[in-house]
Known about the structure:
Belongs to the bacterial solute-binding protein 2 family. This protein has 373 residues and is α/β, with parallel strands linked by helices.
Amino acid sequence: MKRLSAIIALCLCLLPLVPSGSAARTPIRVAFISPSPQGEQPFWDEFAAFMQEAARDLGMELEVVYARHRFEVEENADQIAHQKAKPDYLVYMYQATSTRNMLPMLEQMGIKSVIVNTDTIPLERPLVGGPREIYPHWIGHIYPDDLLAGRMLADRLIHQGIENGLTDNDRLLHMVGIGGSRDATSGTYRMNGLMQALENNPRAVLDRFVWAEWQRDKARTKTLALLDYHPDARVYWAVHGDTALGILDAVEELGIKAGKSFLTGGIGWSADCLQAVREGRMEAAIGGHFMEGAWALVMILDYHHGHDFAAPDPTLQSEMRLIDNSNLDTYAPLLDPDNWKKIDFRLFSKTYNSRITEYDFSPDAVVRQLSGN
């Protein structure tokens, strides 16, 4: 009898994941509005591509719509809401003014939405509230802890800069910060994380902070000028992976060898950033939040089939990790699109996996699945 029970248990483990309820019926239709044209920003290309892989695995229909700026995001949302065949759900990032205008329109048109990647603008928070507060059709919100990411990166650069002896004659480590844009909460929070790290590290000082609008070429141009204005600063904090690559473009153009005598790092896991880390040209890269679109689809799937994610809170924070040469090989497989096909996104869904009591959308959870652990 014990042997028969063991055989039955083994067979049950080998059965494919099956949905509870009606998840296998008519596919859920989702539209995602990317805030960047295809091919312009690697982060958003990865974000959409990873999301598309998840949609295929989860049996959902995903349409990706690209926008050149936040006003076009709003225009696209209006067009989607008024088309004859509306999607069941809309996914997009929070942007100043535009999202404030979109929420009442989507509410009126009966389209449920999930906001990703950025927090609400503090000045607009009294007007929009949180998910399901003022606008019930805004069902969820997922974004990373950008404050922590900015601080983690700064702490690492400060520690390594002092370790490498990059302090000046005044025994201070001189730094420069290159940010994104003033109207994006992610850029502001990351900058605040940098400031927190500086407050906690009296041996480091910020010589200058400038904005580069998330653009690699603009970061390069500004760095060329800053290297002349602040020759003592040999540590550059970057808000974004492309920004850090722009910094590297500038220093290498001037014949400065990035690594021991010049340090930089950014927030974002592009293939180019990871290659720069591998080569020792970039100290560290923080990321993992490019997977948020996939997690938004999991949340939508579960909500649609009666497994509401609202408890304890319809707002979730995604997790990021710091990559350096010590753990690069652990996390690098996450950036290989060929590996995405090996991910069973159903394992992250309460609809398909009844054993889940609490979501684990961390990069580590995906790494464990890829490694078979």
